[in-house]
């Protein structure tokens, strides 16, 4: 059984999509939704699906004993970052090597790194005059947005697209592909 923890900081549309995708899967269980923000709407979405939730401050998230105890209590053996805005501490990267993946709202290595999340990415894509953007699903490493790429999906960017238009296109790619890529990774037995 794969017991997934989803780490999220925001509204949780990707989180909920993942929960729904695996709802009837006998081999995958969403064991925990963890956020660094007590007002993240993702916590409400998780509770609506009867998924346990937890909130850790930045300081608590960097406390190895606290984090590992929480994950152990929920029997977590795989982690998915779905809009989680804290850097992952080295102890967690090490403990979940090739068992923790992230989604980034651009085609890495472009538009990645510290401060490049959400609307900041879409504004940068627009400002750079890019003709395409997309999503990157990658393994988490010690360096921000630098882990080995698992999958990328692209969408065109037109001259008339606003950052909001770009965000909508990227969100559609996330909703379509993210749960399926997670399922494929799990099926390949990369655990």
UniProtKB/TrEMBL annotation:
Alphabetical list of InterPro entries matching this protein: Formyl_transf_N, Formyl_transf_N_sf, GART
Pathway the protein contributes to: Purine metabolism; IMP biosynthesis via de novo pathway; N(2)-formyl-N(1)-(5-phospho-D-ribosyl)glycinamide from N(1)-(5-phospho-D-ribosyl)glycinamide (10-formyl THF route): step 1/1
Gene Ontology CC terms: cytosol
Catalytic activity entry: N(1)-(5-phospho-beta-D-ribosyl)glycinamide + (6R)-10-formyltetrahydrofolate = N(2)-formyl-N(1)-(5-phospho-beta-D-ribosyl)glycinamide + (6S)-5,6,7,8-tetrahydrofolate + H(+)
Gene3D superfamilies the record matches: Formyl transferase, N-terminal domain
Biological processes per GO annotation: 'de novo' IMP biosynthetic process
Residues that, per the record, bind N(1)-(5-phospho-beta-D-ribosyl)glycinamide: 12-14
This protein's encoding gene: purN
Enzyme Commission no: 2.1.2.2
Keyword vocabulary terms for this entry: Membrane, Purine biosynthesis, Transferase, Transmembrane, Transmembrane helix
Site (Raises pKa of active site His) location in chain: 145
Segments crossing the lipid bilayer: 76-96
All residue ranges annotated as the Formyl transferase N-terminal domain in the record: 3-182
Protein name in UniProt: Phosphoribosylglycinamide formyltransferase
